[in-house]
Amino acid sequence: MKNQNKYNKKIRKTGFFIFTFKFLLLNFFSILPATAAAEEPVLSVVQSQENTQQWTGITKRLQATGVNYCVVDLADVRSAADWGDRRVLFMPNVETLTPAQAIALEEWMSKGGTLIASGPVGSLSTPGVRQLLRALLGSYWGFSLNDTQQIKPSKDKMQEWTNQNGLFDKVHGGVVIPNDVTSQTAAVWNSKDNPAAVVTTERSTLLGWRWGTDVASTALDSAWLKAALTRHLTSRANRKNKVEGASPNCSTSSTLSPSSASSPPAPTIVTAPKPRPLPRVTSPTSPEAIDQLEQTVRLDVAPDSNAPIDTNEAIALQQELENLIGRVESAHLAASVDAANVANLQSLKGESTQVASTRPGAVISSKDQALAQARIVAKNLPQLIAQKNYALARQHWLATKANLWKQFPLDRRLAQAEIRAVWLDRGTIVRAGSEKGLAQVFDRLAESGINTVFFETVNASYPIYPSKVAPQKNPLIRGWDPLAAGVKLAHERGIELHAWVWVFAAGNQRHNEIINANPNYPGPVLAAHPDWANYDNLGNTIPVGQTKPFFDPANPELRQYLLKLYEEIVTRYDVDGLQLDYIRYPFQDPFAGRIYGYGKAARAQFQQLNGIDPINISPNQSDLWQKWTEFRTQQVDSFVAQVSQQLRQKRADLIMSVAVFPLPELERIQKLQQHWEVWARRGDIDLIVPMTYAQDTSRFQRLAQPWIASNQLGSTLLVPGIRLLSLPTIGAFDQLQLVRDLPVTGYALFAAENLNNELQQIFSSTQGKVEPATEPIPQRQPFKTAAVRYTALQREWKLVLQNDQSRISDLNNQAQVVQSALNQLATSPSASNLLAARATMTRFKSQFRVWTRQQAIDNPYQVKVWENRLATIERLLRYGERRVQLHPEG
């Protein structure tokens, strides 16, 4: 955000340096009498339970900063008025807010308040509160750094307000993760990949360290608070001196009065336009594992808001509209070349191409009209925004998006040969009640075109089948064997069934509630073997704010029990695969005092290896702490390898998959000790299923894109997860179309209980109605899938390029060579046929851009989609080389 106004006023620094507040609009000082300005605090500072022990250091640094302030006791906050009427609120190291306090903060900021926060703000709060704080700050504390790092200016966009002395020094902090298009990185850490240290929005600043403690110098703390304060006081977002409707009273026990401080009075706040509306947040209601991910919040576009749209947001809005246009066109092209719809080609090509009105809400009579209108709106958006016609820009954007969503061809088949998976959850299985009831569930899945089911088999240590290994079957299942029934029903319908098991999560308080057990019951396995339990640094088996006790992955007896249990599943039942869930430790943040992994076996093994009990290691001891983190990560890594090797010896055809978190690699290892890139590269698993759950398509793409583009996955197939809960039906389809346009082999839906009738009908039309025997399943038949997908690509090229014979002739000739090689490989898998297929693909790709040069100018999105699909075929060939037994000769 650019500073439109600057103040010029010198404030003498105590002890270290002189810092200058600059004021450009001195004529506004007449708003308040000089005496009033001299006596009134500049900001309110929040005191809470977490920062009480740090309060002496905080107040000393506030005095060194030289600004007047008053104190708000967090315990007294119950409404927006309780945050005080100062325009700026400072929240140093406050980790717990109640939902009421968070909602009050949102209301207070919507009235014009601005927020400066530091440290892991809200990290110990409930998931809904954490989400709301993410929205208000445009970022969140990701994870603590292992050691002291240098703060540097952001290379991407140097913000003018950070052009001050004393800001860029060393401090022991954490990585701040931006989570909104309007967020800007003001400073970065001088470490690998330069992660963010300070992130700002128009109404907030988040400092990535614990302000007022010994992790940073007084000079650094003072400099950053002064700079952030100046920025918010001079911001256009601050319209009035005080927040309307807020209480003028806050504690003055720590107020820096003119007589007791060495600094002059606080500056008067300049007027500015109406503050920008803040996003509203709906907390997730699903109790499953992904709720602990602290998902980013959806930022809705308010149609009537005339709040300013900055450059980043303008670019994002235009890009999202252009991408949606591309997805609609891509879906129509796929539908038009499907074998079942060849007869419709001429009618599709004959649709009207006249340009429709660009008036929002205008009736769109055809797909081509809708696309023409959308292109005009996308083109005109920057001009509307430059003219500050923000409300009209938002109205056009929303109306165009709605019109485009209506243009998806939902009544025709358009799906490729792909993995179409769904998690069949325990609740849906229990409600089925019998094999007959479960048959109805599988009928719906088969009609929807689903070809892979992750069947919840072990939940909170309870197997859903009568086990001879586990101490107790799930008490909600009586009189039947759901796993046996599921395997039978799935295979009768041409569907693969993969047993979905919880690995290191030992129990579940919610499940205890359902079965009327004690809330703190650790589950049947830990109840029988308490020595297998894991603990946090306070001795709790269930971490603060979470609901599940965990096993100690370092315990050899526990590992042998799990291996024996999984071996029972894959040998007694003809399951097609095994999916590992909760293959991790629970969430932690070491520098916030949230540490986990102190099981009895883990402590003993680590002490034997390193000569120290890990309970005595501080995160500040970087070398030892790194060893402790690596030790825990290795426990998970080695168990995945052990499961894969042992079970494949029993069932060579078994497909191994993992449900994992799409956090950045370093953050994930610090928080979860889940290093799934290693498992993929080693070939331990076949399918990586990242839980890329988001409420809008653009955010879903941002979550999935790093893993789609990753070169760290070896030959493993990537299958992004889509969460149906709270998604509008057409929004879910939009995410599916994005998956089909990206270089991945399919998707996984969470979960069967959210597959409503409307979505089932769309699935039936767009990806169902095909005999299973005629469509290969990628993880089972990768070479045949590659050939079938390539055939669909050829049909699209012929249709799109049929009017340009000079290009279509060369492309068709070489394309047919590739098709023949792929068909030969699918029919007779051999090393020589695989080599031939790869060679022809390589030659073809080297010329593809030449053949499609003009198309890349006319429709760059579609050409990129074709390239993505070629990349998917190459990945299928790599996967097939590992999974399919190749004959010695072609």
TrEMBL record:
Residues 418-711 form the Glycosyl hydrolase-like domain. Gene3D superfamilies: 3.40.50.880, Glycosidases. InterPro entries: Class_I_gatase-like, Divisome_Glycosyl_Hydrolase, GH, GHL10. Residues 246-273 have a biased composition (Low complexity). Residues 237-286 are annotated as: Disordered. Keywords: Signal. Residues 1-36 form the signal peptide. This is Glycosyl hydrolase-like 10 domain-containing protein. It comes from Nostoc minutum NIES-26.
